[in-house]
Amino acid sequence: MGFEISQGLLERVFPKVYGIKFNDVVHDEDLALGSFRHAVSKIIPEMTRVALLNRRNEIVADQPDAAEKRYLYYLSRTDYEKEWGKEYRRPGFGTKLLAILLKLLPKKGPFSGLNFKIPPRPAEDQFVKSVDETVRSYEQLLQESQTGTLHLANRDCDTGREARAGEYVLADSTYAQLMNDLAASGYQQVSPELRKDIFTFYENPNAPVTTKRKKKNWQKLQDELQRLRTSTSQATAEGGLAPNRAPRLDSAGR
User: Fold this and answer.
1) pLDDT tens digits for 173-198?
2) Is the full-model pTM beyond 0.70?
3) DSSP-H helix ranges across the chain
4) Rounded CA gap, 222 and 253, in Å?
């Protein structure tokens, strides 16, 4: 299908959410969005077709259980074609040739990543059930949106757990990078909600934050947090924001 992405919407919303401009993070917007669309609509489906051609008998179960039947219902070709039409590409000669080549190549060294492994049955069952749960959850969220009761928790989309310092390596590095970018912009567009979120994220002084592994980076983060507190106090004095307090940690994280 690909994805239609509203570039204008991203540009307008990004500063309100993150306090920095979209092009401060993504320097070539057209290239980034175009690459994303291409990967989603071309590369990922192509590799999926190759995997299916190579290992179809192992991937497709003969007797799906109840969860699998619901899963297959959600992804049925009939419903897909009814919603999106019949203009999608099935495996062609190029795909079949690539599948043969990948099967022949030794899965060592630089090609070790091509050693596609079928997940064990318990993992497959867990995946199928997660798709069912996702559909049910999404339907509930749509209903809440219509009734005005929708509330989205700040959760880590990779782990499903509440986002907090030390919970996930990538979250730690992302928050640290955000602090660097906000400091570079002079905290000019930081909303009260973003300030509160940052201070909440770093509120536990004993959290095993990944940034602590490098003393220089941790000290830089502490300095940036202090500058954000100062800017918050100034904004409060000028007539607005309720200050958010976060503990000042030393370079050892105490």
Assistant:
1) 999 999 999 999 888 888 999 999 99
2) no
3) 7-18, 22-25, 29-38, 44-59, 66-74, 77-84, 93-104, 121-147, 169-184, 192-201, 215-237
4) 10
